[in-house]
Fold this sequence. Notes:
By secondary structure, the chain is of the alpha+beta class. The protein contains 14 helices and 21 strands.
Amino acid sequence: MFIKNREKLIESLSTNSVCIVCSGDLKIRSNDTEYMPFRPNSDFLYLTGFDEPESILVIQKGVNETKTTLFLRPKDKKIEIWTGYRLGLEAAPQKCSVDQAEDIETFQTKIKELMVGFHHLYFDMMNVELHSILLNSLKSITNSRGNKKPIPFQFNNLSKFTYKQRLIKTESEIDLIKSACKITKETHIKLMRESHRCNNERELLAIINHTFTDLGATYSSYHSIVASGKNALCLHYIENNKTLNDQDLILVDAGAEFDYYSSDVTRTFPKGKTFSAEQKIIYDIVLKAQKDAILYASKGKTLTDIHDFTSNILLEGLLEYKILKNSKEEILEKNLLKQVYPHGTSHFLGMDVHDQNTRFENEIETTLDNGMIFTVEPGLYLYPDLDINEKFKGIGIRIEDDILIKDNKSFNLTSDIPKEILEIESIKK
Ligand SMILES: [Mn+2]
């Protein structure tokens, strides 16, 4: 899969260019202990299929040929006894389909030779460390008297090219995301089934972590959110350690990562057996907006279109049940919906949970196309300090599914995770 990805990227690079992609390093959590497990940079994985830290891929695209070099950690028996297996230089060319492998310790010296004679550089310009190594290397080549060949004078942000390519998923990538979604589905159903016997949010978090690992997930795509009652009003609540009350709703935003591909799903369900009347009303408004938005999403629409569409349905629901006290005109004029719906409806999904940073190019928004995957996740958060109908205060609900555009239409990859009130209540019987 990664070979095809790399070939496609190489096609989009200018002739006479050098492209540099880093895996990233282990990050220290405290003293000599690292954050685990290591998660390589998504572009690096996408182009190499290799997941060891301290590795760098260099692609040289000349006029007639392309040469690839992988810098990585060499085999070292003594170190491997402590920190585990390394692929090593000898096995790397075949395993990662590169022309040559070099010791990562030699990168700062060898990158100079690899850049000389080329005109364009492609790398992640936000990687400050790499940026500085490359600039210093170019400076030292310029200062050395011996060099008569050209050196790269044009810098390109690689992410712009990889994001564009990664935005459209291949069939194999879609299959990996479907596998991630399947693990997420089993997990959410288990949570709905078992929440009544849990007393603290952390017990649900334990079920999430256990089930993800048990079913073969690489990890969680992001820090799971288990927010009961009013904690759901904090959009990225990650403390996950409060006592559960029987009448609470529990908002769970948790998605498994499978083979480095993400899923991202939110369900909100009662701790006990049933939703209260007030909870039902808010839930139904959010659910209607979510289901209609999924149908509305199709080729040619933008994520902003989906957000505007969804916001409208939420607003109609809030007005119908007189949850907000202001008139429609006043809400629209003062943008009051933002008070109870402060986040966007959608983001792209792929190797990263927020997969694509270049939603706009030259101020023009990306339109949905076949092979794109994104979330649809409306919510309502009825903060107690707002001037709203008393009996709804403190309720926070979000419902989120992962959507693929296929044959110009939306296709819900997580439709089999229950979200209808009757379905959820019957699981909890
Ligand atoms: Mn999301």
